[in-house]
Queue: 2 jobs
Job 1
Amino acid sequence: MQKIELIHTPALLPYYNLQDKTVVVIDILRATSTMCVAFNTGVNKILPIASPEECKMFKDFDFIIAAERNAMKVPGFDMGNSPFEFENPFLAGKNIAFTTTNGTKAIKMAKAMQPYKILIGAFLNITALAKLIQDLNKDVVLVCSGWKDKYNLEDTLFGGALIDKLLPNFEMEDDASLSAHCLFLQYQDNIESLVRKSSHAQRFKLLNVQTDDVSFCLQQDLYSFVPEMEGEYIVNISSAQAC
Ligand code: MLT
C-alpha cells in the first residue's frame, strides 16, 4: 500500500527523500490557491522564482510579474498574491513570473529533490487532486509551505483533509500525517472558524487586506484540474489535453 508523509515546513525537506514520490506543494494562503485561480482564468504557465529581484528581470521577456512578501504585493510589480487579482481575464494566455514568501520557495526546493511529480494542492481542487494522487499510485509527500520556515495551521489542516480523501487506499507513514488527519477530523465542520484564528488570517487583518482571501481559499472543489510542474514551469496539463 502506498504511503503518505507530511512535512510541516520546507526547512524539514533535507530530512526526507522525495525521489520517485508524488509531491503535493501546499500553500493555502495563498500561493497554491492563487495558482489554481490563475489557470482557471486561462494563464498559460507560471514560473516560480526565488526572489523579487530575479522575478523583475522577466518583465523584459513578456511575462506578467507577480511578487508577494510578508503578505503584501511588492511595489513595482504587476500583481501580488491575492487570488482575486488572478481572476482578471487580461491574464488569459499570459505567462506569469511569480515569487511569494513561502509557496514558490517550497516548490523550488521540492523540485531540486527530483520527485516523480510535483502537484499544486488547494482546497479549491482537493477532490481532483486526491483522484490524481490515487491514479499515479506512488508514495506521496505533502509539503506544507508554512510561514518563513515555521509551522502554519492552514497548510497542515489541508494536508489532513487530503489524507482523509486518500485513506484507506494509502496509509499514513508518520506522526505529522497522523496529527494532520486528527486535526482535520476534529475541525472538519468548522474549518473557516479555525483558520480565521490562524497567524496568517490575523496578519491579513492587521494589514487591512480588503479582499476576503481566507474564505475564498477555503472553498472546496471550485476546480477539477490539478496544476503540476513540467520542467521549470507550472502548467495545467488538463487544459492542454482539452484542446
Ligand atoms: C505565500 O507564499 O503565499 C505566502 O504564504 C503568503 C501570502 O501570500 O500571503
Job 2
Amino acid sequence: MSLPPLVEPAAELSVDEVKRYSRHLIIPDVGMTGQKRLKNAKVLVVGAGGLGSPALLYLAAAGVGTLGIVDFDTVDESNLQRQIIHGVADVGKSKAESARYSIAQVNPYVNVILHTDRLDSSNVMEIFAPYDLIVDGTDNFATRYLVNDAAVLLHKPYVWGSIYRFDGQASVFWADYGPCYRCLYPEPPPPGMVPSCAEGGVLGVLCASIGSIQVNEAIKLITGIGEPLAGRLMIYDALEMTYRSVKVKKDPECAVCGKNPTVTELIDYDAFCGAVSEEAAEAVIGSTITARDLKAMQDRDDNIYLIDVREPNEYEIVSIPGATLIPKGEFLSGAALSDLPQDKQIVLHCKSGARSAEVLAVLKDAGFKDAVHVGGGVLAWVSQIDPSLPTY
Ligand code: ZN
C-alpha cells in the first residue's frame, strides 16, 4: 500500500538549506519537493529516551521543520548507555531541554517545541492536535494505548517502536488506512507478565536499529514515497540478525477503530493496564513496609526471612544485605513454597515493589498471612538506607 504525502511542501528552501540537504535533494524520490515537505512537517516524538534519542537526532538532521518533544523525566546516568541525545553534563537535567540543546547542535533550522508535562488523557488531544505525525518512543503499556487511542480519535498516523533486550518491533498505525495498535494487541498483557527494559534490560544499540526504522517510516509518510509499514509489523532479532515483517490486518471488532467501537473517548490508561494485578493490589494493603522499617527490623534482630525475588543478574548488581535470592518465577510455579521457613516472618523485595507485590499475593494465598513486602524495593533501600550502593 502506498499513501499520499502527509505534508504539503514549504514555499522554498534557503540557499543554506539547499547546501545542507544536498544529499537528499539529489535523490530523485525525495528531491526539492520532498525536502520542502520535510521542512513543512510537524512531528511529535513521545519520549526522549532510548528510541526518541536517535529518532529526534535523525529527524532533525533530515530537516523536519518542527519537532515536538514530550518528556517529563530527567536524565539519569543509567540512560547514557543508549539515550545518545543526552550527555554526561545533562545528568539531572530535563530530558526535553537536553534533547533541544543537542538538536540545535545538529540542525539550527529546526523549531523545537517542548511538552514537559506527563502525557495523560487530559492533555494528549491538545498536545497531539497541531502535529502531522507522532513517533511513539514510550516504554510502558499505559502510554502506548493512550498514544494509540488519541491518534485514532484524531485521525493521525503514528510510527510505533518497541525494544527489549535483543528484540525490536516497529510498525505504522493509521486507522484511517489500516490497523491500529489495538488491532494487533487488543489487550495489554497482565500486569507483571512483560518486564520493562528497566527490569529486563536492553542492548543500547538496539535503540538505534528501531529508532532509525521509525525515522525512515516518518520520512516516507511525510513525503509520500515507498511502501510504508502500515499493515505490517517489522520484527528485528539482533542476535540472529534477522528482519522479518508480518501482515497485520485491521480488526473489524477493534475496540477503538472497529465497526462498532466501544472506546469512543479516552479512558483511564493506568487502570486499563494495571500497574499490578488486582490480587497484588489487594495483598499489599496493610502488608507493605518501608526500607527504613526493614532496617529497623534487622537492627532489632527480628525473626525475619528476607527474600529478593529479582533475577540473579540483578542481585549481582546490587542487593540488600541478608537477602536470599529466590526469583519470582519459582513462586509462580510453586517450586519455592515448600522450602520457606514457617517460623519466621517473610519479607519480600524486588527492584521497585511491583514483582514483590505479585509474589506477596501468592504467599498470602499459600497461608503466609504475616508476609510483607518492601515498598520501593532495593531502589528505596539505596536511596533511604545506603546511597553508596549502585542503582540500575
Ligand atoms: Zn484498531
